[in-house]
Design a protein that fits this description.
The protein is α/β, with parallel strands linked by helices and about 350 residues long. Helix content is about 40%, strand content about 15%. The relative contact order is 0.13. Keywords: Membrane, Transferase, Transmembrane, Transmembrane helix.
Length: about 350
């Protein structure tokens, strides 16, 4: 930080559950930052780990809270109300911060422009990642092909290129798939987010926009490494679990939507995607183009990842009662018989 400028306190929130090895790397990346460590607070909420996660967190001087009965959204809310920093960043236990000056890079736009409520960065590829994670990391938000197809591109939010970051204006219905934000706590407290007992990362953005805070900063030079999935099987497990445990149960309580199933054009577009995904060869040619661009063999797995993630989500809807209700409403929209709005929400 420049001389004469007050160094703000930063709070880092991490939720933990039985991933002590990843957690150690995560917290080591936080504590190895060049930012003054006395100004870095780590708050951990553990969901009842049976490994050494709690001990690891304490060894990095984290404030640890245990809530065995909480789901991920309740635990985010618990952690958010325990922080004491001027800025807060919520990360997963299997994430590492890139470089040694991550905080300075993320803070720069927030200090330079007080209109900005939050900054965000992108995921990067690392050689030691499992092939499926490496594949996903070529997308800045680590989207799989289906998730990328359903969400607005980041560039639609760009309004001005600045030194080391891009100023973005988010609009309702056009929020790009970046949920992990480095928030200015002062502004976050002025939104309905602060009163919630369940926190969903994309809903924090929606409620901020509705409260008049629609300026964000994209800081790609900062960067994260996210060890998202160990294998394709693990990725599909996480997609099916998230659909079953998070997105369908929270369907009518969250405001962020991946798909409006009362919009006929979007239903037709999604059906076209399902056909595209299962034809194999169109996705293969897309992967081939990406392979020649980045020279990484994992990109040739595009058709496999495309088919697998699309069909596991589709099967998840078919098996679930609420999912079948959403599919039924989609069919009625398709034939021109709309009913009460039921919005499908699914993704990472």
């Amino acid at each position: 930080m420049s001389k004469g400028i007050k160094v703000p306190k930063i709070s880092i929130i991490v939720l933990t559950l039985n991933e002590a090895g990843y957690l150690k790397k995560c917290l080591a990346s936080v504590r190895s930052q060049s930012y003054p460590q006395e100004k870095v607070e780590i708050v951990v909420v553990d969901n009842g780990s049976k490994d050494k996660s709690v001990n690891v967190a304490k060894s990095y001087d984290a404030r640890v809270f245990i809530n065995k009965k909480g789901d991920v959204y309740r635990n985010w809310a618990i952690a958010l109300h325990k922080i004491t920093g001027d800025f807060v960043y919520m990360i997963d236990q299997d994430i590492e911060l890139r470089g040694k000056d991550f905080f300075q890079k993320m803070l720069k736009p927030l200090i330079c422009d007080r209109r900005i409520i939050a900054s965000f960065t992108r995921k990067y590829v690392r050689k030691d990642q499992a092939w499926v994670t490496r594949f996903l990391s070529y997308h800045p938000a680590q989207c799989d092909p289906l998730y990328e197809f359903l969400t607005p591109p980041l560039k639609k939010s760009f309004i001005r290129e600045m030194d080391d970051y891009t100023l973005c204006k988010f609009k309702l219905g056009l929020v790009p798939p970046f949920g992990r934000m480095f928030y200015r706590v002062e502004y976050l407290k002025k939104t309905p987010n602060w009163k919630l007992n369940k926190v969903f990362d994309h809903d924090l953005i929606i409620k901020s926009i509705k409260s008049g805070y629609n300026l964000f900063a994209y800081v790609p030079i900062a960067g994260l490494y996210h060890y998202h999935a160990r294998s394709l099987k693990h990725l599909l497990f996480k997609r099916a679990r998230n659909l079953r445990m998070h997105y369908l149960p929270e369907n009518e309580t969250t405001e962020y939507r991946w798909l409006d199933i009362n919009d006929r054009k979007k239903i037709i577009r999604l059906l076209a995607w399902i056909i595209y995904a299962n034809l194999f060869f169109p996705a293969f040619f897309r992967g081939l183009i990406k392979f020649f661009k980045y020279k990484d063999w994992v990109l040739l797995m595009e058709p496999v990842v495309t088919i697998a993630t699309t069909d596991v989500i589709l099967w998840g809807f078919i098996k679930n009662k609420m999912g079948r209700s959403i599919l039924k409403q989609s069919l009625k929209t398709l034939v021109g018989k709309p009913e009460r709005a039921i919005n499908g929400a699914f993704g990472q």
